[in-house]
Amino acid sequence: MAQQRRPGRAATSLRRSTTPEERMLWLLTAASVVIVVGIGAFPQNVPLVTLLLPMLLGSLNLSPRHLPWFVVSLLVALVGLLAQQSAEERLTERVVGGVAVIFVAAFIILVTSFRRTRLGVAGMQGESMLIDLRDRIQRQSVLPALPATYGAETALRSAGGTPFAGDFILGARPAGTDRFEVVVVDVSGKGEGAGTRALLLAGALGGLLGAVPPEQLLPAANTFLVRQDWEEGFATAIHLSLDLGSGRYAVRNAGHPPAAHRAAGSGKWDLRSEPGPALGLLDGVDFPSVEGELRPGDALLLYTDGMVESRDREIGLGIDRLVGKTDQLLRGDFEGGAERLVDSLGSRNDDRALVLLHRR
Question: Name one Pfam family in it (predicted).
Fold first, then answer.
């Protein structure tokens, strides 16, 4: 009885040791054999271009380690099929056209495979990784829950409408405190080009935000960026630390557009930050803070330069326009205000991010 169980256990162990990609390779190989046999047995009914099906499926599911050999084996099988045909059959327009299409497609797939070698994963796996990175960036923009007396909204748009942006927002409520912290960051570059750098910096800032005292956040982020030595190695940021009990806040700025504070009593917007150097340019620099108080009915705006700067408008004029348009668009109703502002203002050719915080 024991001897009868061993083969079953060995087979189970073999199935468990086989990776999904290897199973896919065997499946595509079996399908290719069926297609090759079908073409050889029924050349009039099964066209040569049918070989493109396993080739394309392989480009989506096989890694650069297996894909070139799989494509080359299909081309060898194609040459073998042609060798079995007579000269009159091989030189027809239909056959020549089909063979040309297959070789051109194989060349494109091989070139794409060689470009993926640096990543080392198949096409669909690479897309899954990018989707996961995109989702992580988007989840980081979700602010933590605040008391009922406060409201906070965020809005984020990337240049060209792509899901990857150089602008990002992080928020945190440190455990054991009554403090709310949020940072708005603009990494140099736009769209996908800045997305990878933004993700790296977001991971570093996400670990620091709420874990270090507010006055140490921007200096620590600056030190991190200086060490990276990126070709486009700078970013601008604005950091808000708010005491939810008293409404007192401190704003620290690293080369970023200033925060705007709307006082309910006067209805006017005041710019509330003293600019410091951008992150990643100089080591050992300080970032001055500007303090204030958020009273009931007041609001704060944090935003990136994509909201106020464009090719035909300087940033100073853009800030004036933002402040002027905000009252017209919100009219004292802050609910959904962040989305309204981002959709109505700013440059479509630049990443845009905005945080609207108000006290009820």
Answer: SpoIIE
